[in-house]
Amino acid sequence: MPSLHPKAEALLQKFSHELELKLLGQLRSVVLYGSAAAGTYVPGQSDLNFLIEVEKVSVQVLDDLARLVQRYAGQGITAPLVVDPEYLRRSADVFAIEFSEMKAYHRVLFGSDPLEAIEIKPEYLRLQAESELKQKLLLLRRLYLTAAGHGKDEDRLLFQSFKSFLVVTRALLRHLGEDQLLIPHGQLLAKIEARLQIKLPSFHRLAEARGGPLKLKGDERKQLIRDYLEEVADLARAVDRMGEPSS
Asked: What is the pTM of this model?
């Protein structure tokens, strides 16, 4: 398990302990997930993300949590996901990507591991990946209508959407049997290109920029956006074909 910055470690331990006291008799598990569990946490930039399992989610439980969560909100702890056993048991089919990420990178701070028994079928991953890609492609086109011609807005749209596509890419590679996915973005993209037999040069361009200014002229930015939209569509088509019966 990767080590955390001492201040972040102290903060999450304090938060977990207060959860135990606040939800006495209701709390089943406290799980850290996301960058802090995966070893990619950056102090001052990354958040601490928690999954909290209780016996049964109710308004009373949420009220008991609310003041505590609000008190920690300015310290880098995001509002946790609050679930109960029934929700977990019946949701792996619709949240296959999210739960596969959590199962791969998480740390139990209190109680038993609620993710251990969750079964994520490969086809669930593929179906959600296809759905996410096609929804995000529609949203990308829609948002471009208001961002077009405004360089900073276009850059923001590219980088924000790129991050979400990386999550889907990791899920697809996990579906295809890959497990070493904490690698640089360029290597991650190279893996999906090889497995799906597609090319994603604009994705690599965004990965190399690391969220910084693209410093492109009008025509260059327009070409990058054009290529990016086409490559997202290519990726969605490739994932769609994965679901077709093999001949």
From this structure: 0.83
